[in-house]
Write a structure and sequence with these properties.
The chain is α/β, with parallel strands linked by helices. Helices cover 39% and strands 16% of the residues. The longest helix has 22 residues.
């Protein structure tokens, strides 16, 4: 165990994706079976919007088809809850969902006894150049938080009262140590994070980062601007050669020079995986010394690396 100088070891948590449509839960449960030994504080379950895909026909023309590649967030959360005694935090997103869809999602969650969510805007549709809310949907997480708050205080979106107001939802949000890609500057991004805190966010989970200095500087700036909620660092160990160029492009973040230099010497995915594990262990140790409230992991294509990191830390 790698407790810090005050003897504190932050909690381990991780995020899973619902299975691809039609693939079943075997791989998902294998992930949880691998990582449950580290006593996760919670498991987050992502939510994915429907996409339009184009299928080529025999005559060479294309047909546009609506597809939800990863349905089932609520059902997956419920399945995890009943199979493992671990807290689940499903993600509620604006992207691709109307306010009405969200209302029904909240009702379903309430029926299941799930009262904590991570509230997000969600990714843009792949065929759109930039994020666009669906008609009757929210443009930003701040609007989604207002809807959840209104639900908590007993009002449906059409203004009618909720007869049985259950246990209120608590929620976390996302934050970006290296700034959200659309934000014109870091201060603007922090202003909206502060707004989310004012709307009741109890914590924020970070976008992944590989350079702890960026996280430390982000926390420093956030505290100076009046953000007091826990800002939970999140990591995803590199496991493939292709990620060295893809990750900065996809997630709009920097790979620190030392890691990039070492990665450039790697000849295979196995080499990168070994490097990613060592880097991840060092990141965790430094974050723990700093006194982080928890460390969250993105598991996609990284389960075995996370297991190896967690074995050295937790
Ligand atoms: P917002 O808070 O709406 O911010 C988006 C941008 O708008 C930022 O630049 C912000 O500065 C600005 N902004 C914020 N509020 C306002 C406002 N009121 N007016 C004007 N500008 C504003 N995506 C998924 O599709 N599904 C998931 O399950 C998922 N899980 C994630 C989990 C974590 C921990 C993280 C970090 C990201 C996750 N994402 C997920 C991706 C995330 O949804 C995207 O990064 C998205 O582009 C932004 O989401 P947000 O909640 O930060 O949006």
């Amino acid at each position: 165990m790698s407790a810090n100088s005050k003897g504190l070891l932050p909690r381990f948590s991780f995020e899973v994706l619902p299975p691809l449509k039609g693939t079943g839960t075997e791989s998902l449960f294998r992930t949880i079976d691998t990582l449950k030994a580290f006593n996760p504080a919670h498991i987050n379950i992502t939510t994915h919007r429907s996409e339009y895909v184009y299928e080529e026909q025999e005559d060479g023309s294309f047909t546009r088809k609506r597809l939800r590649r990863r349905p089932g967030t609520i059902a997956v959360a419920s399945a995890i809850m009943s199979k493992y005694d671990i807290k689940v935090i499903p993600h509620v997103v604006c992207s691709g969902f109307t306010k009405e869809d969200t209302e029904y999602m909240l009702l379903d969650l309430q029926f299941l006894g799930i009262h904590e969510v991570l509230a997000l805007r969600g990714d843009k549709a792949k065929d759109e150049p930039r994020f666009q809310a669906v008609r009757g949907g929210h443009s930003h997480t701040t609007d989604l938080l207002r809807q959840i708050n209104s639900f908590n205080s007993g009002t449906f979106i059409d203004g009618t009262p909720i007869k049985h107001v259950g246990e209120p939802f608590t929620f976390g949000v996302a934050c970006y140590p290296e700034k959200h890609e659309e934000s014109p500057n870091p201060d603007s991004d922090l202003r909206y994070l502060k707004k989310k805190q004012e709307l009741g966010a109890q914590y924020a989970i970070c976008q992944m980062f590989f350079d702890n200095k960026k996280y430390f500087s982000f926390v420093d700036r956030a505290r100076k601007s009046g953000i007091t909620i826990p800002l939970i660092p999140a990591l995803k160990p590199m496991a493939k050669l292709s990620q060295i160029t893809q990750v900065p492009k996809t997630f709009h973040l920097d790979i620190p020079k030392e890691l990039a230099d070492e990665a450039a010497l790697c000849k295979s995915d196995e080499d990168v995986k070994r490097l990613g594990i060592e880097w991840g262990i060092n990141q965790c140790r430094e974050l723990i010394d700093y006194g982080v409230p928890g460390i969250h992991f993105y598991t996609m294509s990284a389960v075995d690396s996370i297991r190896q990191i967690a074995e050295r830390i937790w």
